[in-house]
Amino acid sequence: MMTREMIISELTNRGYNATAQDSTKNGVVLEGIIIRTEGSAIAPVIYTEQLISRAEEEGKSLDDVVSRIIDTYEAHKDTTFNIAELTDRDFVLSHIRIGLQKASNEDLIKGASELEGIESYLYIGGEMGEDGYSIKVSASYLENASVSESEAWEQARKNTFADTQIESMAKVMSELMGVPYDEEMESEMPMYIITNRKKMKGASAICDRKHLAEFTEQHHTKKLLVLPSSVHEMIIIPYTDDMDIEMFSDMVSQVNASEVAPEERLTDRAYVLEF
């Protein structure tokens, strides 16, 4: 069986400065490696568990996996990033966002989210390579950037909610399947996806009361059924009194177990928000 240690050993044999690096995402510890580049203060984490699992499914060898990691590293090693920006006050205020995750014991600046079992937190997000980066914010981080906690939350709400998107699921599915959209698709149960423009860590858009209040007014309701899809998005449905919340909670649980990566899951239940 292939292991992370075997990958690190082979990378070292090929002349790369590779070390193990564990990361915690949404309460899930992920095994990874980093390859240090001379003169660079930061290095992206390459997560190995999924690489190993895929390699075993496809019958790939250790050499194949290591070569793929090297190709990824070589393609992005020259990406420039000014690490001093990370504690620059103006940079922090322009890049700070709100994320959602399962309730945790992480030492972060966190807040309530109105959804039991889910907490909000602050992170710095930006562009770097193909996937960008995100750094969770602690009290000491803000102190180093001379930003108060209240100021951070206020600006994070502005930055986060400026990107809120609410899209009809029927319309999204029509585009994915390449079929014409018809409003009758929504007649039985109108479902909507709430996220951000990049659809990354977009579940926090559910905290955007202004956009949600506008949505509920348009749909002539005072309540929304909320289904946590992942840390990236949620599903909202105009609430009616005949809805079976337990049934929807079971649906969320089943989708989580079969479709959502552990590090991207929120809770196994549905919620009702009132406006």
Automatic annotation (TrEMBL):
InterPro entries: DUF5688 (IPR043743). It holds the Pfam family DUF5688. This is Uncharacterized protein. It comes from Butyrivibrio fibrisolvens DSM 3071.
